[in-house]
Amino acid sequence: MRKSLILTIFSFILLLSLSLNIAQEKIQTITLTAWTIGPDRPSFYRRDNLVDAVKRLNSLLEKEGSNIRVKLEATFDTGTWADYKQKFVLAASAGKAPDIILSGHEDVAPWGEAGYIIPLDDLIKKYKDTTDLKDVIPTLWKSVQYKEKTWAIPQDSEARPLYFRKDLLKKLGWTDKQINDLPKKIQSGEFTIYDMLQVAKTAQDKGIIEKGYGFWHRPRQGNDFYIYYYNFGGEMQDPKTGKLILVKDALKREYQFFADNIFKYRTAPEKFIGMEWRIWHETVVAGKVLFWQGGIWHWAEWQQVYKADPKDLENNVGYALVPSSDKGKPGITLTHPLAYMVTKNSKYPEIAFRLIALATNPVFDARHCVTSMHLPVLSSTRKQSTYLKNKFLRDVEYMLKFTTFIPNSPDFGTYDTIVFKGLSAVANGDVKPEEAVEVVVRDLENALGDRVIIK
């Protein structure tokens, strides 16, 4: 009897062992790939949030009884946007795209049209209530929609303010009250963009700053330039047809502003367009420029990459909306949300989507925000203690009420290249603003035909 019981127990253990081995053999480990970009180095959590979400995903898969487990190969690019996007387009065209691609919201239109990425509406509907996707700030969903479909999950948002040196304004005779009131005067439209140039010129004339160091905008092609186009009355996309719009008078006024900055007020150096970003950052960090316009993420980049003294930034650098073009009109900024997309090449699109969804949570969102100085995509992130402690982010949140976006259009790349070419020609003194506008109109009509509306 005892021998029989022992044999029974042994047989049971053997069977159990075999069953476990069989179950173990059925476990399938799949490898997902993800490409992410800063290009600012402090934005590494765009990659690491995905990496850390793998453990959460595998835990869920195990609880669900799935035999799938996930590994992730993720990259973080600190090169140029142009190179990064070209690399993806070439890979997608060859059927070798990663499972997940991070990029700007404006890419959903051309990449969706080209079939490089897939719409996510069904997956969002399936998982929204059981993830933090239900907490995404509603306006951010609009930025990743095209042709009534949702093509991406917002990853972060931001603003692009005007920065100014408080210590230099004090040397100019400004009181603490005048300096502290400047953001409010910009918000209300009491202090305009040409008022800014006049103050900058005065500081140069008095020797407080060198000539050409009064106002610096970005030195290379980028979305910030559309802040000024919108500022002067520009429109970019027809809401009914989706066609791009160019307002000639607004573009002429924008071009004239950049020409005035360089050639009339002498508040930026000649041949400024094309300056290396490293030189640009090192110069503003050194406190040599009175006014400059950049992104809120620069606040982190200046400290982590360019070794700016945090106390110097806190005590001597102010920030506000970009001043309006006309008295009484509020200041303005531009927001460029980045987003995760699932590619058509992915063999496991639902698994890739779930990984993105799990990486989109308030804890991960907050750590990305405070490390890289970006604004959150989730409403609940604002309640995280790490976020609440960050004065700078709390100070700039209001700017989203005065923001604009670039359009979601497959033709935007062509549009942007032509418009920036005109701006560069004006900034280099090669043509007058009105001449550049006519060339831009001609080139847009030749390139886009009836897909662009000229006003």
Describe it for me?
By secondary structure, the protein is of the alpha/beta class. It folds into 2 domains: 30-158 and 336-402, 3-Layer(aba) Sandwich (D-Maltodextrin-Binding Protein, domain 2), CATH 3.40.190; 162-334 and 411-454, D-Maltodextrin-Binding Protein, domain 2 (3-Layer(aba) Sandwich). The protein is 48% helix and 13% strand. It is built from 20 helices and 13 strands. It has helices spanning 2-26, 45-63, 81-93, 108-114, 121-127, 138-143, 166-171, 176-188, 193-205, 225-231, 248-264, 277-285, 298-304, 310-316, 349-359, 362-372, 385-388, 391-396, 412-427, 433-448, and strands spanning 28-37, 68-77, 100-104, 145-146, 149-150, 153-156, 162-165, 215-216, 244-246, 291-293, 317-320, 338-342, 452-454. It has a 5-stranded mixed β-sheet, with helices on both faces. Strand 4 (145-146) and strand 5 (149-150) form a beta hairpin. Helix 11 packs across helix 20. The longest helix has 25 residues, at 2-26. The termini are far apart. The relative contact order is 0.17.
